[in-house]
Amino acid sequence: EKDGYPSFMEKEIHDQPSAVGDTLLGRLDENGSLTLDEIKIDESVLRSIDKIVVIACGTAAYAGQVARYAIEHWCRIPTEVELAHEFRYRDPIVNEKTLVVAVSQSGETMDTLMAVRHAQEQGAKVVAICNTNGSTIPREADAVLYTHAGPEIAVASTKAFLAQITAAYLLGLYLAQLRGNKYKDEIATLLAELEAMPAKIQRVLDEVEPQVKALASSMEDAGSVLFLGRHVGFPVAMEGALKLKEIAYIHAEGFAAGELKHGPIALIDQGQPVIVIVPSPRGRDSLHAKVVSNIQEIRARGAETIVIAEEGDEAVREFANHVFYVPQSPTLLQPLLATVPLQIFACELAGAKGYDVDQPRNLAKSVTVE
Ligand code: F6R
């Protein structure tokens, strides 16, 4: 069942090209448009929504954060992301004009289910992004966009995360297509870029995995690892930190790179490993230069800098102790590539420490209590 891999987690990391490919399957047509028959919510309702709230927990909430950048940019609909267990208790402003997107691999997470019910009581429509057919959240939601990652056995989520992000992109592009706006012309291009992602993820596995494994197995003694990212790299950083906590039991934290000087840089001293996710230098804004200068700042204070950057980005080399290059992609899609080395890193490091990566202590695959 593990297809020859030492753990389900490692197998599932390798399932990711098909998890993403299968989630796209049947949803794109040849002339570059998107059909989501599953979204059985009246189109007039979808045209009239004025806010999106994504609710989820853990890794699924990080997928939601990636979704926010994409949906706000493509659809110009204000989008919030909230941890499901916080959502219900803050008296959220939710009504018939709110679309709630509930993201859950298992479809059984009690906190998320309760938040779904709360939103529906306020009149909101709920779309579930879910990996488990017929589970509770999709049954109660008004519509479901299934991720087709296949069953995820390892407790730490990997392929479901990439599939959730993929489904969220589809939802965002679908809403952009439906509502018509200035990004309409880009939809076909983005869909083609999405279709190219499975092969690019495969390249990360083929080319980058051995390098990441070599580094991870030399870091058994790391006491803490920090992760920095900006824009969509920020949730990727938090996901990388979560994976390391969960399975390698190493203290890890993800920060927004811009926040560094507001406090966390005080943590940097000699030999502190910091993993930095660098945005594309081809992006239209100055984010790349800003993150490179962050790397320079922490390196100057003794950090061991481990950099995930886009192929062709030579500017990062000077300040990086280690660089892992992922294929080029539009900035908003980069999480599908940049996350993979972080998953491999956590899996390999946990393995090197002799831990059971599939069954980490204290954790259950699906959290069905509040
Ligand atoms: C992390 C992880 C958890 C889940 C969270 C939500 O690796 O697996 O953080 O993402 O418990 O679970 P689902 O997606 O089933 O609602």
UniProtKB/TrEMBL annotation:
One of its GO terms (molecular function) is glutamine-fructose-6-phosphate transaminase (isomerizing) activity. Residues 41-181, 215-360 form the SIS domain. It is found in: Cytoplasm. Its EC number is 2.6.1.16. Keywords: Aminotransferase, Cytoplasm, Glutamine amidotransferase, Repeat, Transferase. Homodimer. Catalyzes the first step in hexosamine metabolism, converting fructose-6P into glucosamine-6P using glutamine as a nitrogen source. This is Glutamine--fructose-6-phosphate aminotransferase [isomerizing]. The gene is glmS. The chain holds residues 258 to 627 of 627 of the full protein.
